TrEMBL record:
This is Transport and Golgi organization 2 homolog. InterPro entries: TANGO2. It comes from Gossypium armourianum.
């Protein structure tokens, strides 16, 4: 489970800002942020499956992915973590890559994928669990967006809280330089949990409650 808030093409000093928390089982081996072999991709790596949840390239491209929260899964499904890597290693535009993935989207468990080319000012959202509109691929409009484990900008409480907190910081600083390092702690270390009656009721009540925080800390006593 992950959550991200990002601002795209809407601030005079920052074409793109991203804050992202990755939540994963502690026993899943992970490699830290490094330049990968060949020196073209920068990102953490899932040492178990070989993919990543967030990575960027020297030529101004970036991709990040979240799982879609659901009970059912596909046995022997393709690894979702390879999708960001495949995009960064390709020369395709975000929309071109997304349209290729759609052709085999049913071979993956549920995911949300953001593909960015900062230089061409192109950002695409791809999901294989589209809303009623049925759109697998959407051009992301300039503005502030939150992505968790449902569709982009879904009104989950934790997503709304993160969106609100981010906009509060922006309101204080206006068009001035932002304290990005301080914002990591202010926005992404929030352990507030929501009332059980207001949660989506996908897993057990205990699990849904734990997952309702922006920062999921399973080492702290409840």
């Amino acid at each position: 489970m992950c959550i991200a808030v990002f601002m795209w093409e809407t601030h005079p000093l920052y074409p793109f800002i991203l804050f992202l928390n990755r939540d994963e089982y502690h026993n899943r081996p992970t490699e830290p942020l490094i330049w990968w072999e060949g020196g073209e991709i920068l990102g953490g790596r899932d040492a178990q499956a070989g993919g990543t949840w967030l990575a960027s390239s020297r030529d101004g491209r970036l991709a990040f992915i979240t799982n879609f929260r659901e009970l059912q899964s596909i046995p022997q499904a393709k690894s979702r973590g390879n999708l960001p890597v495949d995009f960064l290693q390709s020369k395709k535009k975000p929309i071109e890559f997304a349209e290729e993935v759609v052709k085999e989207a049913d071979q993956y468990n549920g995911f949300n994928l953001i593909l960015v080319d900062v230089r061409s000012k192109s950002m695409v959202y791809l999901t294989n669990r589209p809303e009623k509109t049925g759109n697998f691929v959407t051009q992301v409009s300039p503005g502030i967006h939150v992505l968790s484990n449902a569709n982009l900008d879904s009104p989950w409480l934790k997503a709304q809280r993160l969106d609100h907190n981010f906009k509060e910081v922006l309101a204080r600083y206006g068009k001035d330089e932002l304290p990005l390092k301080e914002m990591v702690g202010q926005l992404m270390m929030d352990t507030t949990k929501d009332d059980l009656s207001l949660l989506p009721h996908i897993y057990s009540p205990e699990t849904d409650y734990d997952l309702s925080a922006i920062y999921i800390d399973t080492t702290r006593p409840q």
